[in-house]
Protein: Protein-methionine-sulfoxide reductase catalytic subunit MsrP
Amino acid sequence: MLIKIKKGWELPESAATPESTFLKRRSLLKGLAAGPILAATAGLLSGCDGENSQTAQAADSEPDPSAGLYPVQRNLRYRLDREITSEELATTYNNYYEFGSSKNIWQKAQALPLRPWTVQIDGMVEAPIEIGIDDLLAKMPLEERVYRHRCVEAWSMAVPYSGFPLKALVDMARPLGSAKYLKMVTFKDESVASGQKASWYPWPYVEGLTIEEANNELSFIATGLYGKPIPKQNGAPLRLAVPWKYGFKHVKGLVRFEFTDKRPVSFWEEIQGSEYGFWANVNPEVPHPRWSQATERLLGVDERVPTLLYNGYGEFVADLYSGLQGERLFI
Ligand SMILES: Nc1nc2c(c(=O)[nH]1)N[C@H]1C(S)=C(S)[C@@H](COP(=O)(O)O)O[C@H]1N2
Ligand SMILES: [Mo]
Structure:
């Protein structure tokens, strides 16, 4: 069973498809992939799969009730050493196993209904909270941040997320002093996410942080992308962004935040713990067991660039790990 799963998204970079090939393939495959999910949205999508001008966002014609909230003001404290990735690439080259194991899932993801969307905040808290997404968005301090994103597969991008600091949600939750971890859980509904019919995966997708990590200023819940509501394929309506950690920590489609004193076992950790651990901090000097992490392919850029310790965010997060040298911090 594990052998099958290993063929998934964990391709060594040398085997990853360059996006030019990918985009060509996408146009070739256009129209061939119609299943029940695509059929349901075929009317919305037809004519919208342009090869250059249309973005994936534009293909989704359901009005998003949060659209009026964006754009929000950019927080200039977080700066980049690279160009922002094109919206077209960032919204059509995705990892979202609920909708399939290829990078080309953006159309399938349009089947996810975003309203009603209820978020549960529970576990070791003073009182559990159940809140609708629009009420949550109204309470949270929204801002825009440009962040680097580094996938463990050794591709990367730089994108403008809108959203709120995870700390604002932790403060609202009022966790008990005994809570040590925050577990975050993706929706589960195999009637819209056909990938969840694959029973060898431990659905729903789960990720976790320590409370200290969750309260770090960089930990962000993205609700928008490129000055608009975040597209479904990128994790709408709520998705974690912890830019010093590998991309698989950035759990999408969140429905539950649970405070706990037990370290959560995350989705990929459960599948292959020797390759995907709890901490998963970016470090170019610690290779994945099957490939190097020294460099990365920036989407849309021809040359590989060196990967940075903590993905370049050491000044914000290195202190979190002093005293934890015995832990497998980088895988
Ligand atoms: N629920 C869920 N969240 C997920 C994933 C997934 O398969 N399911 N993939 C992760 C991985 S491996 C990466 S690199 C990022 C990709 O985010 P993007 O598609 O917005 O670039 O999402 C992460 N979050
Ligand atoms: Mo990833």
